Amino acid sequence: MTSITPLADLRARIDAIDEQILQLINQRASCAIEVAKTKMAEGESGCFYRPDRESLVLRRVKAINQGPLADETAMRFFRELMSACLALEKPLDVAFLGPEGTFTQQATIKHFGHAVNAVPATTIAEIFNAVENEHCQFGVVPVENSTEGVVNHTLDRFVSSPLKICGEVELRVHHNLIGNTGSLADIAEVFSHQQSLAQCRQWLDLHLPDAKRTAVNSNGEAARLAAGSKDKAAIAGKFAAELYGLSVIECNIEDESNNTTRFIIIGRQISGPTGKDKTSLLVSTGNQPGALYRVLEPFAHHGIGMMHIESRPSRQGLWDYVFFIDIEGHAEDENVAAALKMLGARVSMLNILGSYPKAVL
């Protein structure tokens, strides 16, 4: 018969392990402070955040994790540890689409951890302006949803912005109907971002066909508006419900079960290669026969996978378009560099918006 370890002994063992963990965490924090001193001694005075380095750390954690903690749990722990250590070096100011309680804020925390200074902005343009004017080092903006496609406001801003894409984060989005009532019959109006309203269209048609649907700047703003009345509700995340003291009336009302939003990190930081990277491009060809073929052929010639392409009006002339393209690899990779050189000779404009690590989670 297997003997059972007394509970007191197990608790004593846990206390001893906790003490060791705390000592190691503080040792790591001390190393982070030394890293900052070394960087400053070498003349570096800007942002100490390195997306390529953090991506490599998280992937290594995932590779060496033997459980019983799940990989996602282990990586979340190390994300927060890196966030706290980075704050000791130099705190980050990160702009996000506010107010508090939005999915963009959740994406910000998922990517940077809780130790950053998250700064709410009212529009995507305001986020770009905050980073361009150096009020914040980074910004987090939505760029694509698996159900509704690209966020045009984000893409259009890159036509004139000098900022780069420094990273990406994917967030599994669960939409919830939240409010001050427990009955659907009481709801006369539903607030949410236009993308969220579209992602829950079928559910709303079935369960709230007569309720007015009002699009607002963000899900957080929707929750704030719903908090002031019993006949108003919002579509938002549970984080927003907790923040504004609302009840979750219905959970997971999104029409697609795999609803995911991709966010990008914008800033001036340049990421080094990690081996699992993505490069985003802005290309203009002019209106001429075979133009799109001439854009795509260099990638096929050099064996590069194209992950996404989107066309948008250039706003520079009638029927003049630009292409936003995501490809696999880093601009410093030999085959990618060769393809970009070939492409540059064929188009009227080629802007590398950024090479950055693929989302880890």
Per-chain topology:
Layout: H1 7-41, H2 51-64, H3 71-89, E1 93-97, H4 103-112, E2 117-121, H5 124-132, E3 138-145, E4 149-150, H6 152-157, E5 164-172, E6 176-179, E7 189-193, H7 194-199, H8 201-207, E8 212-216, H9 219-226, E9 232-236, H10 238-243, E10 247-250, E11 260-267, E12 277-284, H11 291-301, E13 306-313, E14 321-328, H12 334-344, E15 349-357
Parallel strand pairs: 1-2, 1-3, 7-8, 7-9
Antiparallel strand pairs: 3-4, 3-11, 5-11, 6-9, 6-10, 12-14, 12-15, 13-14
Helix pairs in contact: 1-3, 2-3, 11-12
* Poorly predicted residue ranges: none
**Radius of gyration of CA atoms, rounded to a whole number:** 23 Å
Number of helices: 12
Element order: H for helix, E for strand:
HHHEHEHEEHEEEHHEHEHEEEHEEHE
| Percent of sequence in beta strands | 25-35%
Principal-axes shape call: globular
Counting helices, strands and paired strands, the structural category is alpha/beta
| Strand tally | 15
The biggest beta sheet reads: 6 strands, mixed
The end-to-end span amounts to 43 Å
Overall average residue pLDDT: 89
Helix content bin: 25-40%
